[in-house]
From TrEMBL:
Gene3D superfamilies: L1 transposable element, RRM domain. The keyword Oxidoreductase does not apply. This is L1 transposable element RRM domain-containing protein. Residues 45-111 form a coiled coil. The keyword Lipid metabolism does not apply. Residues 1-21 have a biased composition (Polar residues). It comes from the Eukaryota. Keywords: Coiled coil. Residues 1-40 are annotated as: Disordered.
Length: 334
């Protein structure tokens, strides 16, 4: 029994040994890890290479697009540069034309001011000449129409003057002519009659007659008619004097003494002293302070300012234009 047991144990041991010898040896853990890492590295390299190829392709496409974009930008830039050059050229031309236009405008403004000044000056001279031509004249207001009864007007006026005024009997009136004012005869009998214009040969005789007439402040009487004597003013002077008379009437209502010296001045007697104004436009501010509103013609105000404007040119002569201005008009600024 003991031998069989020993033999069986030996067989078992022998079979185990033979199995171990015939079975291939197992790989170590380090070798397995290395293999796995190598596989992972190869996969990563392959992925990186694929990604690099993609990036290279994309870069090439982007480079191509960039070059095309740069080409377009360069083309556009050249076009912009060309247009900018053209615009600069046109701007220079416009600046030159604008400078010429400004110079022409200034020249035109100087010419306009010159012409306005000349117009005001000539109008004033014409007014003065017309007034001087009327120095020997006087007007008689209030004589009824057809009172002369188709008789000689000079004889009629001579009788009227000597009857209504106290004059020396030996005074020779020397009336040159006399007639009604050259307006339409009023159709309505109630309308004011036309004035009578009387021209004397001698200015001094006219002054003597009118000074005698002015002694009668309320007017004189002829055949129970109220008649008035006054200077033969021009139309413009009459208009201005009428405005001044209206102002004087309102001033008298405020107990302010005022007079109207020739031609249409306003003389105020105030507590601060006597003030004389050449026109209502000059007196407007003072009259406003006195509570009298005056409607002043804007054109008259502007002409008054213009006539007083001592604008000068290079010649330092009032109201003169330069040779350059004259040449500019005759030769169109060349």
């Amino acid at each position: 029994m003991g031998k069989r047991f020993t033999t069986s144990n030996q067989k078992t041991t022998t079979s185990k040994l033979s199995t171990r010898i015939n079975k291939p040896p197992k790989a170590s853990k380090d070798q397995q890890n290395d293999s796995e890492q190598s596989a992972v590295c190869e996969d990563s390299m392959a992925a990186m290479l694929a990604e690099l190829r993609t990036l290279r392709k994309e870069h090439a496409e982007a480079s191509k697009d960039t070059k095309e974009s740069l080409t377009r930008v360069e083309t556009a830039l050249s076009e912009v540069t060309e247009r900018t050059t053209q615009l600069e050229s046109r701007l220079t031309e416009y600046e030159e034309r604008l400078a010429a236009a400004e110079e022409k405008s200034q020249r035109s403004e100087r010419a306009l001011r010159y012409l306005l000044y000349r117009d005001a000056s000539i109008s004033a001279k014409c007014e003065d000449l017309e007034s001087r031509a009327r120095r020997n004249n006087l007007r008689i207001y209030g004589v009824k129409e057809d009172e002369e009864n188709n008789s000689n007007m000079i004889d009629f006026i001579s009788d009227l003057i000597r009857t209504s005024l106290t004059l020396p009997g030996d005074l020779n009136l020397n009336i040159v002519r006399a007639h009604r004012s050259l307006t339409m005869k009023p159709k309505n009998p109630e309308s004011p009659p036309r004035s009578i214009i009387v021209r004397f040969l001698d200015y001094r005789t006219k002054e003597r007659v009118i000074q005698e007439a002015w002694k009668h402040r309320g007017g004189t009487t002829y055949k129970e008619q109220k008649i008035f004597f006054d200077q033969d003013y021009t139309v413009d002077t009459q208009r201005k004097r009428k405005q001044v008379r209206d102002v004087i009437k309102r001033l008298k209502e405020k107990n302010i003494k005022a007079q109207s010296p020739f031609p249409a001045k306003l003389k105020l007697h105030l507590e601060s002293g006597v003030k004389t104004f050449t026109s209502l436009a000059d007196a407007a501010e003072t009259l406003e302070g006195l509570g009298v509103h005056v409607e002043v013609d804007e054109r008259e105000t502007l002409l008054t300012k213009l006539s007083r404007n001592n604008w000068t040119e290079t010649s330092n002569r009032r109201g003169m234009m330069t040779n350059a201005d004259l040449k500019g008009f005759f030769y169109n600024g060349k």
